[in-house]
Amino acid sequence: MQQSPGHPSHDDDWAQTLRAKGLRATAQRMAVLEFLHHHPHTDAEAIFQAVRCSLPTISLQAVHLIVLDLSGKGLIRRISLPDSASARYETRIEDNHHHIQCIRCGRIEDVDCIVGHAPCLEPHDNHGMRIIEASIVFRGVCQSCDAEFEEKDEHL
Ligand SMILES: [Zn+2]
Ligand SMILES: [Zn+2]
């Protein structure tokens, strides 16, 4: 798992991080941050299923609102990928990194940025649109999917 040194990983640090952004350090927000920190690239539904074990009163709607708040304040990053129906979130926000996704099983991994800053953020022609982000998504086939495919191939 990709973890940057010095990134908060327990409740006190999350509480500080939240307060620094003017958000109340609620148990629900801290649970979402802590879960995402250890399970990057998860969607609201998966976060909900995981945190409801320790927070039985939390609702899926509450998780949607929390990830909206947290990404709005820049505490987490929202990722939308072509092969995922729902938006994914992660706490790795301090760098510009990209994602690689397996087109068969949907597995997502981080890919470090090659140039170190966001690419092509200022196109020559924005067609009148306000640019929010420019993202790069590498699409591929992971080793286990490749192996599975080769196995099937042998039996044809
Ligand atoms: Zn795969
Ligand atoms: Zn990532």
Automatic annotation (TrEMBL):
InterPro entries listed in its UniProt record: FUR, Fur_C, WH-like_DNA-bd_sf, WH_DNA-bd_sf
Keywords recorded for this protein, A-Z: Cytoplasm, DNA-binding, Iron, Metal-binding, Repressor, Transcription, Transcription regulation, Zinc
BP term (GO), one: negative regulation of DNA-templated transcription
Keyword Zinc: yes
Predominant place of localization: cytoplasm
Cofactor or coenzyme needed: Zn(2+)
Domain of life from the UniProt record: Bacteria
Cofactor binding note from Swiss-Prot or TrEMBL: Binds 1 zinc ion per subunit.
Binding site for Zn(2+): 102, 105, 142, 145
Subcellular location per the Swiss-Prot or TrEMBL entry: Cytoplasm
Pfam families: FUR
Gene Ontology MF annotations: DNA-binding transcription factor activity; transcription cis-regulatory region binding; zinc ion binding
Cellular component terms (Gene Ontology): cytoplasm
Recorded family membership: Belongs to the Fur family.
Assembly and oligomerization: Homodimer.
Protein name listed in UniProt: Ferric uptake regulation protein
Organism: Chelatococcus reniformis
